[in-house]
Design goal:
alpha+beta, 2 domains, four-stranded mixed β-sheet, 9 helices, 26% helix
Amino acid sequence: MRISRMISVVALLAVIQIAAFGQPQASAFEPFDRWCAAVLAGNQASLTALYTSAPPSQNQTPAGKTQNPNEEPMFWSALAGQGLSDFQPKVLSISRPQPGEVALILRIEFKLKTSSGVQPFTVEGTQVWIQQGATWRIALTQRGDLAASPTFRLPEPVKPNTDLYPPPEKAEKEISAALASAAKDHKRLILVFGANWCYDCHVLDATFHSKNFAPVVNANYHVVHVNVGDDGDKNLDLAEKYGVPLKKAVRIPSLAVLDPDGKVVYSQKNGEFDDSVRIGPADVAAFLKKWAPPHA
């Protein structure tokens, strides 16, 4: 995934200044569940009530910015009339910039009836929720195009792990711990530079944990997820240290393979793993086999 495809929560939050109070739930975010239920029901009134009116929610659509409070509720409620089915909202990232504020990066997958029959579609986007009194409402959104869903040959996560990538500042400590473990069991390290907002990163992780690949990965590698941050500007020096060129163009996931002594035996140069639609099981199998430690 190229950095230009990312929806930056940090950049979105910068355009509004709203007073917020209270604490969000620690795990599942129930207000988003209510939003999903309203979309499924095609209930525009229920959706409208979930967006701020004072001040009006700010929305970035494919057509541009709008403060029309009805635009987002109209778009999402209209899907029910188009034969909405197989509705699968995926939360890729959840962050809490401050008390009473929750930012979600989303991948919404569903099917609609078309002249060619029932077809799968995807919308990527961001929602920033704030707490106004006892009520959570959406203050800011960014919505991508309604696009035909791509066909993946790799396993996809049913529920993405929103904690897949630890905070960026933990990367060096986690690499050091993995190197210490590798020195004992003689495995190699796979450093996966990426971020929670990157769906391709979640697909690669699901692949590594799938029944066809988990035994190979577990027998030969320690996998360390290195977070490049919400804006793709973190740990770039660390990537350069291990031969992964991310400073000019952040293309993730990007991989490096290390020996237990920290020596780089492979580093991704040309976005080989940054598009999980392009690559398939044979590509992953060949990579894992080629860079497995010599004892394997």
